Amino acid sequence: MELKLKRPLAFFDLETTGVMVSNDRIVEVSILKVSPGGKEETLTLKVNPEMPIPAESSMFHGIYDEDVKDLPTFRERAQEIADFIADADLAGYNSNKFDVPMLMEEFLRAGVDFSLDGRSFVDVQNIFHQMEQRTLKAAYKFYCNENLDNAHTAEADVKATYEVLKAQLAKYENVEYEDKHGVVSKPVVNDVEALHAFTNLSKPVDFAGRLVFDADGDPTINFGKHKGKKVVDVFEVEPSYYSWMQNGDFPLYTKKVLEGIWNEHKNKKKEARTNNPVQSSNPVKEVNRPVKKSEPSKPITDDMLKGLQDKFKK
Description:
Distance between the termini: 118 Å
Shape: extended
Strand content: 5-15%
Number of helices: 13
Strand order of the largest sheet: 3-2-1-4-5
Radius of gyration: 33 Å
Largest sheet: 5 strands, mixed
């Protein structure tokens, strides 16, 4: 189906160093501009983000520091990108929440005057999520082809969830799935451990998602200024962060898990100190310090006894 356009519509996608709009940078931008009448133009380019690309980001999009170290920066290509988009409307997948804000952040850093006024924004992900609702009622209709009566009553919902899972196992038996790394598998199988692995993609440590396991299997912070950092590394540079979380508005289970990590961290440091006791700052001086010789005892005289009696009034 050909799009009915009054002016160009630019579909674009960004690959970045991370997901923090204020701190991360673009490493690749690709734009497909569709004009009224169906003409298509493409601009794809990589840029030097002027910061190291984290390993987990490189594993996701396949772009490494070595690939971009000699390329122009976004600042150097910003005007070219802005001119290519021109007055086009913007479209993407999750673009309203991420790509548009990230692009604008980079334009502002580069000093390029790119206005969003008067443009339309089409987020394809929002169409998908709104038309294909993610409610239990919608899932029951989709998988079981039945209407869910008494929705939002606990007993009806739990029975429906059970029926949906059985229908999913039947529907997706031997169906291939490709993950974000391009690995193809058949993950929906009649095995609880396998389903656990497939349905916990974010690998939360605390279920609330404040702490998640990284690629090395270590607990990391998943929010705020320390997002992406290993918990123990944060404890090292900012020990007060532990107290802040324990006294903050966080779930009790998150605090319990954090306490376990904190105690294990302290115990390891204590063990390290025990196995490697701190040496004197100047051991040679300590060894060679002269021993103070005690003076020989003086014999007790009558004058000494009289002095003691006068002192203690005895």
